[in-house]
Write a structure and sequence with these properties.
UPF0193, mainly alpha, single chain, 0% strand
Length: 123
């Protein structure tokens, strides 16, 4: 079905009477809907098919007619489960660990006397 449509789309001149008869016969055998038959007949006559026009459906509202309403408006959200806050404050960490500190990280690094080190390396 689609191959026939593609083949006829490339033609600019109308198809012969025999071709149109063959096309009608094939469309009857394949039980094509009337809309598809109209498209194929228009193409066989050397024209373009009419654009598909659909009637608007009843009961369906357009998206732009209704303002957005947040379904969660007014509900309290727990900040611990909301994404985006990835760093804990120092107070939260101290709260969670009950003030536990590790000795290996307390006091900072070694103090190096750079002047003494410089004189040793130069001398």
């Amino acid at each position: 079905q689609r191959l026939a449509l593609v083949a006829f789309c490339r033609r600019e001149m109308p198809a012969s009477k025999d071709t149109k008869d063959l096309l009608d016969k094939m469309m009857k055998q394949s039980n094509l809907p009337e809309s598809e038959r109209r498209k194929l007949r228009a193409i066989a006559n050397g024209g373009r098919p009419e654009p598909v026009r659909r009637a608007p459906r009843e009961g369906v509202t357009m998206m732009h007619t209704l303002p957005y309403e947040d379904p969660l408006r007014g509900l309290a959200i727990n900040p611990r489960i909301v994404g985006g806050q990835q760093r804990k404050s120092h107070a939260d960490i101290m709260d969670d660990t009950r003030g536990y500190e590790r000795d290996m990280y307390s006091g900072g690094g070694r103090v190096i006397d750079r002047d003494r080190q410089k004189t040793e390396l130069q001398g």
